[in-house]
Amino acid sequence: MKKVLKLALVGAISIFAAAAIGCCGDDHSGAAPKKVDTTKPVIVGVNPGPHAQIMENVKKIAEKKGLKIEIKEFSDFVTPNSALAAGEIWANSYQHEPFLKATLKKEPKFKLVKAFNTALFPINIYSKKLKPGDKIPDGAKIGIPNDPTNGGRSLLVLAAQGLIKVKNPKDITTTVKDITDNPHNFQIIELEAAAIPRMLDDLTCAAINTTYALNAGLNPAKDPIVRETNDSQYVNIVAVQEDTLKDPRLKTFQEAYQSKENAEWMKKTFPGSLYVGWDENKK
After folding, report:
1. Which residues pair with 207 in a beta bridge?
2. Measured in whole angstroms, how far is the alpha carbon of residue 44 from the centre of its chain?
3. From CA 118, how far away is CA 83, in angstroms rounded?
4. Order of strands across the sheet with 141-145?
5. Is the per-residue pLDDT at 252 higher than 70?
6. 97-106 and 148-160 helices, crossing angle to 10°
7. Positive or negative CA dihedral for 101, 107, 111, 116?
8. Which alpha helices (H) appear in 110-173, and where do they start and end?
9. What digits encode the pLDDT tens for the residues 15-59?
10. 3-class SS of residue 221
11. Beta strands of the chain (E only): which ranges?
12. What band does 283 get if pLDDT is binned at 50, 70 and 90?
């Protein structure tokens, strides 16, 4: 009887140990990784305006390819990356790569990466007091975004026109402290990017992102007094979590976004307001 109990106890311990290894140890069973449900809709975060409009068109193209997209709008530049990192959305399309890199430097726990290029939306200089072709007067109050990437970008636009000089005209981390020569005594005023269009009356001119310019009724094709050129480093991107790079739906999404159909729609819908951000000859 004692022998039987002993054998039973050994057996029970062996089963428990095996179960523990199966739950907590390395899985050497060769089980396939969890498959992605390619029929499930993906949620893409955007800013209102051009990004949202383009995504509506991409949604139609993607649906023909079997991919369903849900669009979620965010009114600021910070929340879309937080939502992406938290898994609340599948991807976002609103920022350029320097902005993403700056975000990751500030939030290293965010495991986000660039998936592909979308479009270049120039950050131009606008004014209610000056007309295109007018010279910016000495002592002008010039508003620029107060976030590091778009603020630096604005300063590089001014430097490219010879209006100011900075330490390195190619350095995307440029700040007002890097201005080495300000011959016209411009007053550089750092402001919340979304608020700048509403403050144009109080400024001589200001650097405004295309998205906010369009929302404010400004025409990026006609109204700027200073323009950013199409060789800018600030091409917009789609960002995703690192693991999403393995998601087969991402390839379909990219094909829809970078399709000839979408490129032509973008150029027709926003003439003079954007540049296609990928090499169309490769499509």
Report:
1. 125
2. 11
3. 20
4. 123-126, 205-209, 141-145, 187-191
5. yes
6. 140
7. negative
8. 148-160
9. 333 333 333 334 444 444 456 677 889 999 999 989 999 999 999
10. coil
11. 42-46, 69-73, 91-96, 112-117, 119-120, 123-126, 141-145, 165-166, 179-181, 187-191, 205-209, 236-241, 275-276
12. low
